[in-house]
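pasting for ref. prot 1 ->
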Amino acid sequence: MDKATYEIGDREYCQEELVLCQEEALAELIYPLLEDANVTAKRMVEVLLVEKRALRKALAVVLIPVGESVESRDLDAVEAHLAAHMKLSTQGEVIRDFLEINAGAAKELMALGSQAKAGTAPPPQAPQRTPRSAN
């Protein structure tokens, strides 16, 4: 699968293979959780869903409103729309599609999480953004 589309509320969204800015945004949400090698699944869900509202942010990063581009969309507006209109069944569909469309990235994230939990590798650091020159 190369692309998936979804009707959410009164809007249509698509999901394609991640581009660099999406990878960076997801890493900023997920990697801090891997710093604690003893984090439990329950605690991870609690942090992602309740404290950081990371699921809605991650979905807003992954889903692109049809007719807009990754760089031109308003992430806050997308997040608010998804939070108000996205059903649980659609969330599951988006996550399953994400794992299929981005199989390589998904395997890497799972491996990093397993290594961090097992203590076999230091937790990865989120990529640092470097300022671009004004040229």
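and prot 2 ->
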Amino acid sequence: MKTTIHFSPMRKFFLTIFFLPLILINAQSFSNLSSASNPLPSSGTEWIIGGRLGMSIGSSGGSASAGLQLGPMAEVLFGKNMAVGTELNINTQSGTPIEWADYFKLYFDIPGSSVKPYASAGLSLWFVSGGPYFGIRFGGGASFKVSNNLYIPADLQLGPVFFSTQSYDYFKGTTTSTTSTVFYIAITTGIRYILP
């Protein structure tokens, strides 16, 4: 038996946008590996790794559910102020929602301060009792320097997550589609380490 998976044009668009940052990260790491044998002037690219811990809230149809959010993250910092990153967040609400997010982040400089405020935007895939479902996220925060390469962030992310389910009525022989939107908010902290 052959199974065929069909994606709508909208899903193809979201999948393309979602995987583009991953391709850029892999291309950059390949470039760094190939430049090890042929040293060139430094491009100012740095890797940031760490984790998130905090509270997430999902709200839909007049009800809300709060839970704990935790997960790893990685970013590639280009120059001083631009980064592309990815996160895998596990939430403790009903169904244990898992978010895989890719984002673009812009850091801002404050003269004479070690605090680095930032704004971010991106796309995410959600896995909750099935899926994947698509989300759009945006937000910001600030990273506070603790030691030479170690930062503690205060972060706020929010945005809609679009759910779509299908059910089959065996008695009528029809399929019913239901769509809903959940508004997602995450208030987190964590740890960020810039690899030397």
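Residues 47 and 76 are 5 Å apart (CA to CA).
The first helix runs from residue 9 to 37.
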